[in-house]
Amino acid sequence: MNWQELSKLSAYQLVKLEKQPMFNKALLSLALHHYQHSQDYQAIIDSVYPEFKIVLDDFVSGAPINMDDIEVPTLAVNLFKHHLLQSIDDEQVFKITTSSGTTSSKVSKIVLDKDNIKRQQKVLSLIVKEWLGSKRLPMLIIDHANVIKDKYSYSARGVGIQGLSIFGHHHVYALDEDMTLDLERIEHFFKSYKNETIFIFGFTYMVWQYFICALEKLGKHYDLSKVIIFHSGGWKKLQDIAVSNKVFNHRLTSILTQTHAKGVKIHNFYGMVEQTGTIYVECEAGYLHCPVWSDVIIRSKKDLTPEKNGIEGIIQVNSLLPKSYPGHALLTEDLGIMIGNDNCTCGRKGKYFQVNGRMVKAEMRGCSDTQS
Amino acid sequence: MILNLENSPLTLLLSKNNVPIWDDALTQMPFDEKIINTLSQLGMFLMKNSRKEPSIVAAGYWLRKAHLLTLQQEYLESCNSAKGVAFHIAPGNVDTLFFYSIVVSVLSGNQTILRISNKLTPQTQFFIELLTRFFNEDKKHDVVYSLIHIIQYNHDTEQGLNITQQLSLFADVRVIWGGDNTVEKISQITQKIGANNITFPDRYSVAVIKLNHEGEIEHAVNLLITDIKPFFQQACSSPKVMYWLNTEQKLQEKFWLLFTAKAAEQLRLMSNDLVSKLVYLQRLPLLLCQDEKNKISIEKHADLQLVNVKFITKEAIKAHCGLWVLLNQQVERLTDIELLSHCQTVTTTGIEASIIKYWQQPTKLEKTPKRVVPAGQALTFSHIWDGIDLIDSLTS
What we know:
The structure holds two protein chains of two kinds.
Chain A: H1 3-6, H2 16-37, H3 39-48, H4 50-61, E1 75-76, H5 79-82, E2 95-98, E3 109-112, H6 114-132, E4 137-142, H7 156-165, E5 168-173, H8 183-192, E6 198-203, H9 204-218, E7 227-232, H10 236-240, H11 245-256, E8 264-270, E9 280-282, E10 288-289, E11 294-299, E12 313-319, E13 329-341, E14 351-358
Parallel strand pairs in A: 1-13, 4-5, 4-6, 6-7, 7-8
Antiparallel strand pairs in A: 2-3, 8-9, 9-10, 10-14, 11-12, 12-13, 13-14
Chain B: E1 2-4, E2 11-15, E3 21-23, H1 33-49, H2 54-62, H3 65-75, E4 85-89, H4 97-107, E5 111-115, H5 122-137, H6 142-145, E6 148-152, H7 158-170, E7 173-176, H8 179-187, E8 196-199, E9 204-209, H9 217-228, E10 239-245, H10 249-266, H11 271-287, E11 297-301, E12 304-308, H12 314-318, E13 325-331, E14 343-349, H13 353-360, E15 371-374, E16 384-385, E17 388-389, H14 390-393
Parallel strand pairs in B: 4-5, 4-7, 5-6, 7-8, 9-10, 9-14, 10-13, 12-13, 14-15
Antiparallel strand pairs in B: 1-3, 2-6, 11-12, 16-17
Helix pairs in contact in B: 1-2, 9-10
């Protein structure tokens, strides 16, 4: 299946038997593409995964391959913090996105060309449409406008906002640069779109700290009738202060509406800069859904082999989008649990899972660490 | 001079007076009888209460009286007095190095203030508990007790930096463990006039092994495990590279077969370590000059990855994460081994001492290691560490 055909699929319709053969073959083609276009990826395969090199050779020569037995090697997502991996010529580089990171830790650098950005936008819009509908909505962004200033190098927050902005119109930023609420702007926005569905987006922690808590402190309550909230960016900070998804949703709902609780839809989503586009949105039943263009595998914490459903392991994400950089199969540092496939009560097909948070940071050991 | 840090945010983990007030006049003579007596009794106490923790047993053994007396004899002539106040910056989690740093400093008679990591491993916590118990049990150890202060503080905050600055101006010598970054960072902080630094920058270590017949295999396997098992192979003296000197392939295969069997029960990694290790293994082809000249291959032996290489690079060593990865190289002659300039320890198996001595001559080796010891002793502490005579540097 080529890209044209892939981009005509809808996000959550194919069942396992329909999806897996198509997906596996497309992923293998993509791995071959990177093997042929990225010297670094080639070196990694040749040295660390010689058995996969044989598979690629067979694939090229048209020899029969049993797709079920093939495992495309997973690159550790941190590799992108150390090396600039690319499968395009330097002249084609259009943008380099970076993961968010504190000053002390390195950030991932992802090399993108125009074509790859187009793919990301296309797939993101196919996914988001499933939740927002195809009409653009008035949009409130829980951040400040300067976060997307630097056009060449976006941070994760910038990428997220930029990516989702195309689903809104009349964008309003809720915060000033010092992270304080601009109440006048927010209330004017709520008033203007009183009778429409409004779209709110922000990073989970920002929404909690600078929107929910800040409005509660001011004793502000509104009575909106239809709101869809998307938020993302991990629960780590909220786990630290013991805020669960349930508490988050409850308190956000009670600020936004007094009489239309059913009109407030809150969707957390999981995704990463290293695979922008293929996001995993939380459904009404509380599970994250894998769209047709990507695949999630949970790996054993003991030996990295595939883990059974229902048991916590390390999350691997495979995506058919990365073409300008070899990020098609990535082992994350997040822990999660696979819940099932094709049978979520929300009705969507495909795998569904939950994310439990980051792995506990490795204790630095050894002589060269006094900095902790 | 008196230094009073009562109003600073620091924790005293071990200190006789329980207040962060230090008097630089309080020193003892190097190798004073009271010091030797107390330390040798501490040694016995540690061996008895170690709960079989090998690193604590080894620390106790190091303090045996005969050993301390030998050291005393060795330095009788040259060491007249203590430096004064020694400020130690201990490495993160090499559980016992902090202790040896204290011991050589106290043996030399110094008032010893040691900053330890804020994140302590359970082993280190246990070790400090033992020390506290020992010193609180008997008043006769008070002379030594009053020389030892283990402190903790957040050194990356402004207040923490201030503490480091004050201690640096107070101390007569700083002992800086922790590799290039720490050495560079601390060295920038002004010291008392005339004070000096003892620094331990980044180092790596290697193993050289030669096997002639099958009978040697088991012992050699045990020694390798002894050298790489502690601290997940992350201590700078644990070998990261293994050089096979003229050893038949068949013997090597048998060596790894036995290693796998023995290591399977002993080497275990947690999930985050598995991922860190995967990152390093995937980085290796990019760090080792990825062309035909150095085509690498990886073998897995239990939880150890053996990476066959034609040569090593500085980048591949710098990025090494420990966690049981050995770069593996075949050599025909000792002189084929190219050490990097920051090589610390070479452990040897099956090579005659005279040959090693010959090899170590600067004319034979472009870069000489700081230390050559038989396999199995990579982590054995010595008062001459990294080529630095610690006792000599801590006395006048």
